[in-house]
């Protein structure tokens, strides 16, 4: 599993983020406080206070998703 701290500030960032993580084969979770949602779900993400940093958990090893990790740099906290 790969874990990152991310920040999504604008609606456009949320859209780009969901587009990127939707390409992952497997589970991708977004955690804020004690709540967890599917990171591939725009509705789930908007149930969070997106002004706060969130934890992204990708249930794949970093070696398998190297290109995705590079693309997610703009969202890293």
Care to describe what's here?
The protein has 77 residues and is an alpha+beta fold. It is built from 3 helices and 4 strands; from the N terminus they run βαββαβα. The chain has a 4-stranded antiparallel sheet, with no helix packed on it. The relative contact order is 0.32. The model has no long low-confidence stretch (mean pLDDT 94).
In short:
With 77 residues, the chain is α+β, with helices and mostly antiparallel strands.
> How does the overall form come out from the CA principal axes?
globular
Count the DSSP helices: 3
Span from first to last CA? 19 Å
Q: Rounded to an integer, what's the Rg over CA atoms?
A: 11 Å
Residue share in helix: 25-40%
Mean pLDDT: 94
Q: What is the strand arrangement across the widest sheet?
A: 1-4-2-3
| Low-pLDDT ranges | none
By secondary-structure content and strand pairing, the structural class works out as alpha+beta
Strand content: 15-25%
Helix-strand pattern, N to C? EHEEHEH
**Main sheet: strands, sense, barrel:** 4 strands, antiparallel
**Overall number of strands:** 4
């Amino acid at each position: 599993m790969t874990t990152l701290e991310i920040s999504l500030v604008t609606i456009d960032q949320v859209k780009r983020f969901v587009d990127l993580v939707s390409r992952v084969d497997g589970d991708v979770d977004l955690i804020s406080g004690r709540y967890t949602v599917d990171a591939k779900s725009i509705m789930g993400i908007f149930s969070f206070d997106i002004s706060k940093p969130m934890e992204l958990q990708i249930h794949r090893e970093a070696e398998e998703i190297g290109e995705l990790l590079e693309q997610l740099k703009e969202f890293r906290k």
